[in-house]
Amino acid sequence: MNWAGLYTVLSGVNRHSTAIGRIWLSVIFIFRIMVLVVAAESVWGDEKSAFTCNTQQPGCNSVCYDHFFPISHIRLWALQLILVTTPALLVAMHVAYQQHQEKKLLVLTGHADAKHMEEVKKHKMRIAGSLWWTYVCSVVFRLLFEAVFMYIFYMLYPGYQMMRLVKCEAYPCPNTVDCFISRPTEKTIFTVFMLVTSSICIVLNMAELVYLVVRACARRSQHNSNPSSGKSSFYGHKHSSEYKQNEINQLLTEQDGSLKDMLRRNSGLQEKGDRCSAC
Amino acid sequence: MDWGTLQAILGGVNKHSTSIGKIWLTVLFIFRIMILVVAAERVWGDEQQDFVCNTLQPGCRNVCYDHFFPISHIRLWALQLIFVSTPALLVAMHVAYTRHEKKRRFRNGEKIDIEELKNAKIHIRGPLWWTYTSSIFFRLIFEAVFMYVFYYMYDGYQMPRLVKCNAWPCPNTVDCFVSRPTEKTTFTIFMLSVSGICMMLNLAELCYLVIKVCMKEPRKTT
């Protein structure tokens, strides 16, 4: 499991994201993960071996390195990128659950042929209903993780700048010892670059959040001014055909309408006459 | 996520590019990215370890290396290649959006063959022409900016054998020796030439697109 594996997992989520979500994913993979792997890792590669202190005291070098770099930038960025990309998996899991429900519904309504099953897998889920909440939660978590890591970076490495020289007094170093960091300018450049891309990602996430909220409000006001769809209640009779019909009703009330569109398109059936009053 | 994945992403864009665009993409992948990965990274691999200064003063070597190489050539080239290849994704996004719109029209009842939709080459016309032209324009700008950054940082593209350093804590002036200067100069000039070729290809593509549009317009008006 490496970055390429994560890319494979997350590209699947891409299909069900908004346009801003797709841009966000591209920025993450190209400007953050790829830059990390291809460039930043080699800059920090020799951070410990080339960390030199002006002393011959054994152990002083290690102790000072550990004191000034409790956790390396590279590891922090790797953790940040993993935590920031993972909420998208919540959405993937919800989509998989909805697809499972749709397949169950197809079986119950007698449309369980290969063509319909394939289409369930391929069609894009509308971000509405419970999926909307999951999607919004995932965006909120992304924002939180980004902010937390930027704060951790600021606490650990005040000002984001890498110094050329640090003065170390930790035991066993004698008095104060000058220690020199390797490639400080290059490290500062990459730290600033990663910080800027992180901020761009935060802005994209906020834009996506605003877009989702505005879209939901617009949809709700459209629905309120056009209340043609009612929803039936679940009766729960155990009589076989009524029970089946009621289960279909319940499944349909949980769907966001994408399956209904699909079935309407493919079979040309009249909704009201054929299935339920939940439509 | 490495160069291979970038190649997979950009390979998809290739289908909707002009012939010059396809040549540009090939030059980018074979003569720049591949050379970077297969050869240049090895040449610069020991750049700091083998940067030797004529002093026993601890820290002097680190400081002098940092002073003369604020950012390594390899990293600059990696960033340049990432920035130069990314505008092509604008085109990919626009094509995906156009396809999505066509699918929506199909769903609303218009008769469009779905197989043809997937495989059809989308012609560079209308708003796509503007997106494509902007992407070429951005590529040119990024190439020019990076070439300027290189020139500004490494005065004249040549790697000297010896640099004289007097940054603290080095005592007075210290001679420092760069590892593999001739090989580095050779690769720097090679990458520079290929970058120049890519800029010319981009300019040619820009001219081609503009001329194509101008040729269409008189035909429309007559």
Automatic annotation (TrEMBL), chain A:
InterPro entries associated with the record: Connexin (IPR000500), Connexin32 (IPR002267), Connexin_CCC (IPR019570), Connexin_CS (IPR017990), Connexin_N (IPR013092), Connexin_N_sf (IPR038359)
Q: Which SMART domains match?
A: CNX, Connexin_CCC
Q: Which UniProt keywords apply?
A: Cell junction, Cell membrane, Gap junction, Membrane, Transmembrane, Transmembrane helix
Give me the Gene Ontology terms describing cellular component: connexin complex
Q: How does it sit in the membrane?
A: Multi-pass membrane protein
- TM ranges: 21-40, 77-97, 131-157, 189-214
User: Where would I find the Connexin cysteine-rich domain in this sequence?
Assistant: 145-212
Show the PROSITE patterns listed in the entry. CONNEXINS_1 (PS00407), CONNEXINS_2 (PS00408)
Q: Does the keyword Transmembrane apply?
A: yes
Entry's Gene Ontology molecular function annotations: gap junction channel activity
Any one Gene Ontology biological process term? cell-cell signaling
Spell out the subcellular localization from the entry: Cell junction, Gap junction; Cell membrane
Q: Where is the Connexin N-terminal domain?
A: 42-75
Q: What Gene3D superfamilies does the record point to?
A: Gap junction channel protein cysteine-rich domain
The similarity comment for this entry is:
Belongs to the connexin family. Beta-type (group I) subfamily.
What does the UniProt function comment say about this protein?
One gap junction consists of a cluster of closely packed pairs of transmembrane channels, the connexons, through which materials of low MW diffuse from one cell to a neighboring cell.
Q: How does it assemble?
A: A connexon is composed of a hexamer of connexins.
Name it. Answer: Gap junction protein
Origin organism of this chain? Answer: Falcunculus frontatus (Eastern shriketit)
TrEMBL record, chain B:
The chain positions of domain Connexin cysteine-rich read 142-209
Per the record, its GO cellular-component terms are: connexin complex
Its membrane topology = Multi-pass membrane protein
The reply to whether Cell membrane figures as a keyword in the UniProt entry is: yes
| Coiled-coil residue spans | none
- Domain Connexin N-terminal, by residue range, is 42-75
Q: Which GO terms describe its biological process?
A: cell-cell signaling; gap junction-mediated intercellular transport; sensory perception of sound
Q: Where in the cell is it found?
A: Cell junction, Gap junction; Cell membrane
- The reply on keyword Transmembrane is yes
Query: Which GO molecular function terms does the record list?
Result: gap junction channel activity
Its quaternary structure?
Answer: A connexon is composed of a hexamer of connexins.
The entry's family comment says: Belongs to the connexin family.
Q: What does this protein do?
A: One gap junction consists of a cluster of closely packed pairs of transmembrane channels, the connexons, through which materials of low MW diffuse from one cell to a neighboring cell.
Q: What protein am I looking at?
A: Gap junction protein
Q: Which organism is it from?
A: Scytalopus superciliaris
